Amino acid sequence: MRSKLFVPGSRPELFAKAMAGDADALSFDLEDAVDESMKAEARRTLAQFLGALAPGHGKVVIVRVNALATPHFTADIEAVVGAGVDLVNLPKPESPEDIRECADAMAKAERRAGIEPVGILANIETPRAFHLAAEIASASPRVKGLQAGWGDLIEPLGIDRYNAPMIESLLLHIRIAAGEGGVWAYDGAYANFKDPEGYTREAEAARRLGYLGKSCIHPTQVPLANAVFRPSDAEIAHSLRVVAAAREAAAKGIGAFTVNGRMVDAPFVRRAEAVLALAEKLQLIAPDERTVQ
To answer: What CATH superfamily is the domain 3-228?
Structure first.
């Protein structure tokens, strides 16, 4: 999920176009992108569209519902759970209890629809959520990832959004919290879509910190995210060597070994395997390349 494109839930004319685009994931937005007067109509239209999607479309489908404290949350959950959705994006959770409340509402909707459980992508976009990020990541098995929500997190505090060292410090905190919960971390939006260089710099920083990908608010940002979060040829080559050396070491009962002058043990092998899994998914290597090196 290198790229995740936001699609306003009140713009049905964009739905099919987004599905045909190059973003790995689509985040259909029922929250900030939809005016209060359009909430019910957007919910109905989106549920109809998602429910009619053919299997095997290749996208990760996410819906950002309205927050728990709003009058729209329950209706959003009941409308979209079971409508071809992979993840529910919960905005503004403040505590582990909020995650569990969301999970309970989803479970009720799933039981009525007779479908398998859907995961939660939890936004970290308030000071309290930032403080409790690890607890939020660990609050429910449904939580699959944490997402940085820059506008809501830092704008009310008067913090410069484009201060790169500050953003990286926040990214690191969220990434470590996600790691404690055993989930992935995802970078938030970059509002100035006419600044591709700035978007790329921020995406590269997120990738160095172990983020899965970065949100896109405009289609022009999708190829930037896809390029940054694509494993490089050098990473793929190194990972192939690491995995091959790990097999040889295991056969000899050796736990730690070296590859190209670098010490390698279990965490490095797992990282190499993850790189190769993504490379295979993106068809950068053949399915059997991991076993023939």
So the answer is: Phosphoenolpyruvate-binding domains (3.20.20.60)
